[in-house]
Amino acid sequence: MFLDPLRLSPDGDLPGPVLTEVTALYASNHAFHALSGDFPDPYDIRPEQVAAELARELTDPHTEVLLAREKGLLVGIAVTLSEHPDPADPDPWIGLLMVDASLHGLGHGRRLASLVEDRLRAAGHTAVRLAVLEDNAQGLAFWTALGYTEIDRRRDRELGRPCRVLRKPLTAPGPDPAQEPGPAQEPDPA
């Protein structure tokens, strides 16, 4: 698996084939989107909605959207934020980590999380944070299995959803990516 940073065209658009791939990945995770409320109809996620969401993410110069590919196929996506809007928060955030639902349980989420952590570690960060929706027991189990611990409970900045804030030190390499506890998709940082 390798990470490919998403780049918009000079016109600010996503290339058509990439948008098609990413839309299919988002649409495959309708259960998460039903929980998160990120899209009006989680069973009818459209390319223009995904394009608008990704363009919005990329307006922040501290945000990076990473496409996870294996053998040329898009298997997942991660959105990271190198600086949180709250200056008192010293850590980067994983705002979203999502694997194609047809591939859940095969180790892709664990490998993707490990690659993101490695990337943040290589950039000199010593810890990473993320937010898990209160109602996302599966997401909480995934992240805690990877060594993340709860440090706070608060509402997310964008939609006011109740979340658990988790943190993980990045002083050692990530866990063995060969073991996968389940799917992982998370909301934007709290």
Written account of the structure:
This protein is of the alpha+beta class and 190 residues long. The chain has one domain: 3-Layer(aba) Sandwich (Aminopeptidase), CATH 3.40.630.30.
Topology:
Blueprint: E1 2-5, H1 16-28, H2 30-36, H3 47-58, E2 63-70, E3 73-81, E4 93-99, H4 108-122, E5 127-133, H5 137-145, E6 149-155, E7 162-169
Parallel strand pairs: 4-5
Antiparallel strand pairs: 1-2, 2-3, 3-4, 5-7, 6-7
EC number: 2.3.1.-
GO molecular function, one term: acyltransferase activity
Organism: Streptomyces cellulosae
In short:
This protein has 190 residues and is α+β, with helices and mostly antiparallel strands.
Say what oligomer this is. single chain
Number of domains: 1
What's the architecture, going by CATH?
3-Layer(aba) Sandwich
Write down the secondary-structure element order: EHHHEEEHEHEE
Structural class: alpha+beta
Arithmetic mean of pLDDT: 87
What would the CATH topology be?
Aminopeptidase
Features:
190 residues, 7 strands, 26% strand, globular, disordered C terminus, EC 2.3.1.-, Acyl_CoA_acyltransferase
